[in-house]
Write a structure and sequence with these properties.
4-stranded mixed sheet; 436 residues; 2 domains; 7-stranded mixed sheet; alpha/beta; Nonspecific Lipid-transfer Protein, Chain A; Rossmann fold
Length: 436
């Protein structure tokens, strides 16, 4: 029998019917699904089935994809939509195979020669050791994700080298425009003025620090636990002619206890702070602020529930080991418990979905170059995780919030304007910045 005929009952059991919205092509050339399909799932060998048997759910699929035993040709979002249907229901879809389905799958695997010892775990899978969220383990987790290659990130992040969501406040904006707009929005919320000292925690490649110095006259310090980020960030600071106003350090923010700042931005770093360390995190940042100083915490969030990623999830094993997403109410309470007065909360969920779709498109346009830089496995990891993340933001399963807090002075003075509109004159400010 053709491989596709052997797999047909298993596939139909998974999708809950005989209508397959995408095509499947097996290693013998046989196919399932429509001829005219937006995407084709390619099963390259029996080893792909072995990955699925030993790593049920998304971990098995992820390992097979990273290893190249399963590939996705065409529209990756069409495949993710099918996965979404299977996982979360809809129509006749069922979640998982069930025991009968797994028996059928095992029988199919046996007849196709897929039964054997566990397949090798791809080298791209994270292997951390030590106490969770200790400085050493945090540094290793950061290095796993960010010390991949600056050239690789440049392929999809664009000219701003900004690895957080943009702010698409106007239709038709480019990715770079949206990223500069996000920096300007943060600067306005922090009410930065010439001479103000800004700390950017988890500064990435220095984009926020450079923007704040160039357009608001701030004296900025950026800190990161990624050595490669710090090296390129310092080079970009020098290239921008901002070395007298911007400093980038390869440093843990917890080592800054003796310094004081007028404002702190934390953009896309908070996901690496564990639930058990929220109090320490906000206490540390509160202590670094002068009275009337502000903190803007920009972070991916999720609905109420478990903050940690599932141990066998693709994102935990391949993307953000030890990462945690917190419900925004928990974040607000944690900030206020450490002395901050929370003054503003804004969701940018749809903006992150748009940002991710830009990143995926850029990566796919330069995929061969990405493979030449970081290898096929890691390029696949980023393609899959960013596309899946876009779908999750669009579905509301994840969000992103900017939470603004202030350290009031002894008399309760916050230094905040009486109305939100005072700093939401962002549009006029960005128009000025865009012309510079």
């Amino acid at each position: 029998m053709a491989v596709a005929d052997v797999l047909r009952p298993v596939v139909e059991s998974v999708v809950g019917g005989d209508v397959l919205p995408v095509s499947i092509r097996a290693w013998d050339g046989s196919r399932l699904g429509p001829d005219a399909s937006p995407a084709t799932i390619v099963i390259r060998s029996p080893m792909a089935l072995r990955y699925l048997l030993y790593g049920r759910g998304e971990l098995g699929l992820g390992r097979a994809y990273v290893a190249g035993e399963i590939d996705i040709e065409g529209d990756i979002y069409a495949v993710l939509a099918l996965q979404d249907q299977i996982r979360h229901g809809g129509g006749q879809a069922r979640v998982g195979l069930g025991w009968r389905g797994w028996f059928s799958a095992a029988a199919a695997a046996r007849s196709l020669g897929a039964i054997g010892p566990p397949p090798p775990v791809p080298a791209e899978e994270a292997r951390l050791s030590g106490r969770r969220h200790s400085p050493g383990r945090d540094a290793a987790a950061i290095a796993h994700h960010y010390d991949v290659s600056n050239d690789f990130y440049r392929l999809f992040l664009g000219e701003t080298m900004t690895y957080s969501c943009g702010y698409f406040a106007r239709p038709g904006w480019s990715l770079d425009e949206a990223q500069e707009a996000k920096y300007e929005l943060v600067c306005k919320k922090l009410d930065l003025h010439p001479g103000d000292r800004l700390l950017d925690v988890g500064c990435g490649w220095g984009g926020m620090a450079i923007h704040a110095a160039r357009h608001h006259g701030a004296r900025a310090l950026g800190v990161t636990l990624s050595r490669r980020q710090s090296e390129l960030a310092n080079a970009l600071v020098a290239e921008a002619g901002m070395a007298d106003q911007v400093e980038i350090r390869y440093l843990d923010y917890r080592s800054l206890a003796e310094e004081r700042f007028d404002a702190i931005s934390s953009i896309g770093m908070f996901e690496h702070v564990g639930l058990n360390r929220l109090a320490n995190y906000f206490s540390s940042l509160y202590g670094l602020l002068r009275p009337r100083g502000r903190l803007l915490n920009h972070a991916i969030s999720r609905p109420p529930g478990r903050s940690r990623f599932q141990p066998t999830s693709f994102i935990e094993r391949y993307v953000f080991p030890d990462g945690e997403l917190h419900e925004v109410g928990t974040v607000v309470s944690a900030m206020q418990s450490q002395g901050f007065e929370v003054r503003d909360v804004e969701s940018l969920r749809e903006h992150y979905a748009l940002t991710l779709r830009h990143w995926v498109a850029n990566l796919e346009d330069h995929f061969d170059e990405a493979v030449s830089i970081v290898g096929p496995g890691r390029a696949r990891v980023w393609r899959l995780y960013m596309a899946a993340s876009a779908v999750n933001f669009e579905a509301g399963r994840t969000s992103v919030h900017q939470v603004l807090g202030v350290r009031s002075d002894e008399s309760g003075g916050s230094g905040m304007a009486a109305t939100r509109e005072a700093w939401s004159g962002w549009e006029q400010s960005f128009d000025t910045v865009a012309r510079v």
